[in-house]
Amino acid sequence: MKMKKILVTRKLIKDSEDKALKIFDAKLNPNDELYSQSRVIEMCQGCDGVLTSLTDKMDKETIDKLPDSIKIISNFAVGFGNIDLEAAKKRGIAVTNTPEVLSDATAEIGVLLILGACRRAAEGIESAREGGWKWSADYLIGKQLTGSRLGILGMGRIGQKIAKIAKSLGMIIHYHNRSKLSPDKEDGAIYHDNLKSLFSVSDVLSICCPATKETENMINKETVEYFPKGAVITNVARGDIVDDDALIDALNRRKIYAVGLDVYKNEPNLNPGYLKIKSAFILPHLGSATKDTRIAMANLAIDNIDEFFKTGNCKNKVN
Ligand code: DGY
Known about the structure:
alpha/beta, Rossmann fold, 7-stranded parallel sheet, 5-stranded parallel sheet, 34% helix, binds (2R)-2,3-dihydroxypropanoic acid
């Protein structure tokens, strides 16, 4: 059988690029250039599939202009908010993602956000670097996790792992999810069937749900008022879930005590309002950034294309 031709839009870790070259006639991106949408369309000419990453905006306009030869968009991420699934479906293009392999690494960053925001790590790091700080009984007093209530918005694999670690730190776990989990998956967590009910008991919130039309701006001017005064909001999922202006306003009013963020709308250009808030514990989208996880994700993205061309389907197809 003739080797399938694929475009890989971003540079991958070498092991994964070697794997792609073994299975496919793969066009790689050795300089890791950020391709524009029109460049992706142009580079897809003559290809059977494209391995995209979350930095590729595969909106309707882009997908409509892809050559007919493209049969699969394999996203190098569990999230697929960068791809218009309907537009792809209409053109008969399968879209796949990389679930599970990044759950542990992303949950670790989720817990780091909780710890960093609650224990004022951003201010602490700045003071330690500047020098001249003086220990005192009330210096950089933060919020203790032990005994506080953690609300988890989206209790999928990442949410469940964060719940497990947070529970071991003595937090009491509450969650909202499209459906209630089975008791073994819940592991003692308390289910709330609506946002208001969850947010009103969340001393700390961890956002772990996918970005969809339904979850867009779930944290907004109205819902931010549901939280107890001085709550902490963290987000390891996607920036689209938060209305930044509403959250920044709540931080400035001290309604919300601190934020821990790894993801933003319009990355890498986060809302400058966050930069003015000293307590904001902010990271540059590091959720899945460990070597093992990135290799596992890329290998899965490659396997998804292989499975699709071999069988006509793929277990990680999302559209
Ligand atoms: C994902 O896979 O969606 C992660 O955000 C990538 O780091």
